Amino acid sequence: MKRILVSGGAGFIGSHLCTRLVSEGHEVICLDNFFTGSKQNIAHLMDNRLFEVVRHDITYPYSVEVDEIYNLACPASPIHYQHDAIQTIKTSVMGAINLLGLANRLNAKILQASTSEIYGDPIVHPQPESYWGNVNPIGVRSCYDEGKRCAETLFMDYHRQNEVRIKIIRIFNTYGPRMQPNDGRVVSNFVIQALQDKDITIYGTGDQTRSFQYIDDLVDGMIRMMDTEDEFIGPVNIGNPTEFSIRELAEKIIKKTGSKSKIVFEPLPHDDPKQRQPDITLARQKLGWEPTTQLDEGIDRMIAYFKETLNL
Ligand code: NAD
Ligand code: UDP
Q1: Is residue 203 part of a domain?
Q2: Whose C-alpha lies nearest to ligand 2, atom 12?
Q3: What's the domain range around 103?
Q4: For the chain, how many structural domains are there in total?
């Protein structure tokens, strides 16, 4: 049994990770400032003696004795991370410095939840980890993209300079239960719009692509990465390589829900990447990992989840 710190543990991904770690018998300390996370997400863990929650903002130092740290704290939806751009970049950069300092003092392993946004609007397709990306450093997405890039730099420098035991994963678009209904990401938006027979809002032409990964596959990949030997530090892509256009996604969700919704086209947000697909060769080799839940099955679960939780 290990003692594990999960920053951002009350968020969408964090709450699933905490649940899985507790179910495996580990003691979990969830650190969260509840900016985009909620107590509701972790309500089922509150009575568990292996689980603790601490309200804390990781831009300030925090100290506790642990064996492993998963750093997930950071708003992930474009509307949320752009709401307070300065706080977003502070969270990525100062949060990384604070938690890397803690890992250094404890000789703990620390995993960074990095992102496919590292690749920006990629020119290389699909994206291998060796690709350096095509990122606008001064745009509206930069607080997130550059913050996450700087966090990767910090992880690498703490590793090279202080031999901190780091792991970096680059997460591609992930969806599943406990996404906030109002967080603006595409899968939750479309499913909720379809269930309410409201217009499905495609931004731009809908020809842009994404590759959607179900939450359980991601959590499995994260834990496998943390459990690798110290020599393997990544970065490693964790995502589902099956690529869909946003228009295909909309049509699939309308069909599955039997919705009367119409598709409407709205302006494309600034710097919206045109394509995104992970090359997961490295994850297959090093983690023996690949996704097992495909979009059809995952969307069915999302539909069932929102029907139940939102009474639709
Ligand atoms: P989320 O917004 O649901 O969760 C983020 C959590 O971090 C929330 O609980 C929030 O309250 C907390 N948080 C934010 N700032 C904080 C701070 N300063 N101090 C303490 N807690 C703070 O998002 P998510 O989808 O669960 O994403 C989790 C992580 O995974 C993020 O780091 C994100 O960048 C990364 N990621 C997610 C995706 C995805 O598709 N969901 C893709 C790539 C990377
Ligand atoms: N998108 C859309 N309609 C929506 C929400 C998102 O067409 O209601 C598009 C968005 O412009 C982007 C894609 O769907 O091209 C994925 O958006 P999301 O915010 O989920 O993730 P990210 O852009 O960070 O990959």
Answers
A1: no
A2: 272
A3: 3-179+213-241+276-293
A4: 1
**Ligand 1 in reach of 221 Cβ (< 6 A):** no
Residues 282/236, Cβ–Cβ less than 8 Å: yes
CA of 73 to the centre of ligand 1 (A): 5
Does ligand 2 come within 6 angstroms of the Cβ of 192? no
244 close to ligand 2 (CB < 6 Angstrom): no
User: Ligand 2: which atom is nearest the Cα of residue 276?
Assistant: 25
Three-state DSSP class for residue 299: helix
pTM over 0.70: yes
Q: What DSSP state is assigned to residue 120?
A: B
CATH of the domain at 148: 3.40.50.720
pLDDT computed for residue 254 by the predictor: 98
Is 305 marked active-site? no
Q: Report pLDDT digits (tens) over 215-255.
A: 999 999 999 999 999 999 999 999 999 999 999 999 999 99
